[in-house]
Amino acid sequence: MKKEVLGPVLAALLAGALLGYFGASGSQASQISQLQSQLAGALVEKNSLQSQLAAAQSQMTALSADKQALRQQISMLNASIAQLDRRIAELDATIALLQMGEPSILAIRFSPRGGAASQVIYWLGRANSSVHVLIYSFTLDSIGDAVLAAHQRGIEVKVVFEKQQVSQYSEYFRLAAAGVQVRNDTNPNLMHHKVAIIDGHIILIGSFNWSDSAENDNNENLLVIKSTELATALETEFQRIWVAGR
User: Fold this and answer.
1) What is the Cα–Cα distance from 127 to 199, expressed in whole angstroms?
2) Residues 95 and 113 in one domain
3) Which helix (H) or strand (E) holds 154?
4) What's the mean per-residue pLDDT of the chain?
5) I need a surface site. Which of 52, 210, 232, 238 has the fewest CB within 10 A?
6) Which of 192, 201, 212, 226 is labelled catalytic?
């Protein structure tokens, strides 16, 4: 090729190469700009999400504190409700007692020969479910007959005797032979009670022993009281002595 022709061709090729290079460089710059824009957007979104996370964590902490406070409040309310339930039960029991006319004195008897034994026999005869007795001296056959009659009617009869007073005259042996539940007190000293609890609300109490001397010779007293509350207290004492008895 002639020199005059080669020069223009080389110049054209060089111009084309330069245009291609600068065109490629412009495309990379555009891509970098786009990527930088996306990065900036991602950073903004990240900061926004971090702010939302911090707010959510703060709210969760506040809710946890509220939850704990509510639990404490619920516990206090439950305790108050339980206390009120007990109070309501006490008031209901008191109202029931008042409606039943309790407590009331049904009889007062004095010895000698004041009708104490006949009152014991009368109330033993009216027993419907249970007769629980703590008695120091029990030798009177007429009362023994009433106890046996209650037992034969299917009444639950339990009698604790003072061991030192169980002699050949005691009703202990006759009742035991008939199948009545009897026990001796195990207190090394004296079991000096004279109490009968009938049907859980009638109480026979006083100095009156169930003996001939108490009925005919001694100065004694017998109270017949209708009181579920008093009977419950005395039943606790009876059960304590009964369980320890032999």
Assistant:
1) 6
2) no
3) none
4) 87
5) 52
6) 192
Together in a domain, 82 and 132: no
Catalytic residue among 151, 194, 201, 226: 194
Q: What is the DSSP letter of 138?
A: B
Report the C-alpha gap between 149 and 58 in whole angstroms. 80
212 is catalytic: no
Of 99, 122, 140, the one marking the end of a domain is: 99
Helix (H) / strand (E) element for 234: namely helix 228-244
Shared domain for 47 and 86, answered yes or no, is yes
Active site residue 199: yes
Residues 92, 122 within the same domain = no
Total-model pTM: 0.62
CB 177 within 8 A of CB 154: no
Q: How far apart are the first and last CA of the chain?
A: 145
151 & 32 share domain: no
Structural domain containing residue 159: 104-244
Q: What is the CA radius of gyration of the chain?
A: 50
Give tens-digit pLDDT for 87-134: 788 777 667 766 667 789 999 999 999 999 999 999 999 999 999 999
Alpha carbon distance 63, 56 (integer Å): 10
Amino acid sitting at position 165: Q
